[in-house]
Amino acid sequence: MATPAVGAACLLLARAAGPGPRRRSGGGDQARPRRLQRAVRRRCVAELSREGPAPRPMPPAQLAPPLVPGFLAPPREPEREPASTPPPVPDDSLGDLDLELEEIPEDYINDTVVVASEQDSAIMIGKEQARAEVTHSIVFVTGEASPYAKSGGLGDVCGSLPVALAARGHRVMVVMPRYLNGTSDKNYANAFYTEKHIRIPCFGGSHEVTFFHEYRDSVDWVFVDHPSYHRPGNLYGDKFGAYGDNQFRYTLLCYAACEAPLVLELGGYIYGQKCMFVVNDWHASLVPVLLASKYRPYGVYKDARSILVIHNLAHQGVEPASTYPDLGLPPEWYGALEWVFPEWARRHALDKGEAVNFLKGAVVTADRIVTVSKGYSWEVTTAEGGQGLDELLGSRKSVLNGIVNGIDINDWNPATDKHIPCHYSADDLSGKAKCKAELQKELGLPMRPDVPLIGFIGRLDYQKGIDLIKLIMPDLMREDIQFAMLGSGDPELEDWMRSTEANFKDKFRGWVGFSVPVSHRITAGCDILLMPSRFEPCGLNQLYAMQYGTVPVVHATGGLRDTVENFNPFGDNGEQGTGWAFAPLTTENMLWTLRTAISTYREHKSSWEGLMKRGMSKDFTWDHAAEQYEQIFQWAFIDQPYVR
């Protein structure tokens, strides 16, 4: 007889180990469950060492989904004969329990779960993670995801949100390019070749891509491999600017993402057609267009839905209209991507301004649209923040929502952070004063606990409002404060940081460049974090600051306005707020708000401590964000999919 799989065998034994209904009375039965649990643990470890990690369990709704061959996939290979199973490992410890698997009743089940994996073979009792009421097969499509490839906040989101959704019970796949540049290739060391390949008809030819796969944190990480992803430089360009073939590179990604749920047998079975595609920014925006134009007309993906997540509307994937035939889309779908530049943006008098816009195509065809904050979901419908898509986004306001990003508390937690010299929490803030003293020492500033230390972390460019910081710095340096900046970008602003440090050696420090450990220490050691961004779709630094008891002073825009509550010492229930959000963005407003924060720090210590603790008590975890995304999934499946 074939031995049951490791997970199945252990689960049967675990069910028998639970309290369950008693069969007979007596003292022997009371000791039986505990002895059997110990035996189960030994049996599971033995099975694991014999057969390797346990296979992932199948969701009940997808035990045997019908395989629909992808439109672009080669014919399936013949099924292989299953390998013979070695004989079961004898376990004398089960004999003294007089147990036979056949004796276990079907209803003999409790909440005991046996986890048989390389990391953990212990028995876990009870419910540790909140579970979704309805689970889905979710496919994230993105140009980057941490820790594999990251250039900004998009990588953080697509590296953390899928893990949070998987922890809530969903089956999650992330599809992204397999970037190889000779320096970060080790990031894909655990990804194996799936032996699946497809040919994509676009750009005047048939281009073969292959798939690599890694199963990590209960998520299927799928990497699309093609020579266009193998080059030195960063993800989207090099020192000479953006790559000229980015449209081609991400067209391949979108086609491959549509095929992956149909052809990749991950964990033994495919994702199938009833998927929720979560497409991120312009790199993945062709996916909803492909679903509507090349799959649903032929009865494929008729039950799938797509959600467009806009992280930064400033990047839209705009290319000349002459490139439309290269995309492999039907001619009648040109209108979905059609884009005309205003006259002032055209290069010359004969330029008609005709183009194709990837992001616009997704705005038109996606079933729901999400921005990375509620404030940004309103801003993108205005002429000032809509980047030319304001009218179109305004017309889809009924399906437009905003959800604030979360933060990874495994990396950003003052109680466990490996980058800071002292740990602390909202219950014991003494470690924060020590972090401040160590930061002052590291930066070469006078070690004064009474002086407010203001910090800035970010790119040195126009969006972040560095020019306004530069204008107020002479007035700010007249105050009894210290200021620390970390960032890189505009060479002129980098030179300004160096010269300001030379002029105010006891008050100002500028770290040109970026360092993750230093950013953690500045966040933990500063009293105030300044963020005068002109626009900020979500913003993460203010979330990190509040998590570390550092009070944010921000421009009230986008996600900054959503997440930072203005300090009110006379609230209905006492003092309220977690920082200061000022508007409009002027040097006068910023300087006045900073002086108010400095005065509060010096003269109202109890109020300042309340600001710190309220910020640290806020829930900005990814689990909270994942719960809100589940509501969007529910709404998307209620409505019919987009059909032209």
TrEMBL record:
One GO BP on record is: amylopectin biosynthetic process
- Name the reaction it catalyses: [(1->4)-alpha-D-glucosyl](n) + ADP-alpha-D-glucose = [(1->4)-alpha-D-glucosyl](n+1) + ADP + H(+)
Is Plastid among the key words of this record? yes
- MF-aspect GO terms: alpha-1,4-glucan glucosyltransferase (ADP-glucose donor) activity
What positions does the domain Glycosyl transferase family occupy?
Answer: 449-597
Keyword Plastid applies: yes
All copies of domain Starch synthase catalytic, residue ranges: 138-393
| Pfam families from the UniProt entry | Glyco_transf_5 (PF08323), Glycos_transf_1 (PF00534)
Bias category Basic residues: which stretches? Answer: 33-43
What superkingdom heads the lineage?
Eukaryota
Q: Which residues form a coiled coil?
A: none
Give the UniProt keywords, A-Z.
Amyloplast, Chloroplast, Glycosyltransferase, Plastid, Starch biosynthesis, Transferase, Transit peptide
Q: Read off the InterPro entries from this record.
A: Glyco_trans_1, GS/SS, Starch_synth_cat_dom
Q: What class of enzyme is it?
A: transferase
Localization, per the record, is: Plastid, Chloroplast; Plastid, Amyloplast
SUPFAM superfamilies in alphabetical order:
UDP-Glycosyltransferase/glycogen phosphorylase
Query: For bias kind Pro residues, which ranges apply?
Result: 54-68
| Similarity-based family | Belongs to the glycosyltransferase 1 family. Bacterial/plant glycogen synthase subfamily.
Which NCBIfam families does the UniProt entry name for this protein?
glgA (TIGR02095)
Q: What is this protein called?
A: Starch synthase, chloroplastic/amyloplastic
Whose protein is this, by species?
Urochloa decumbens
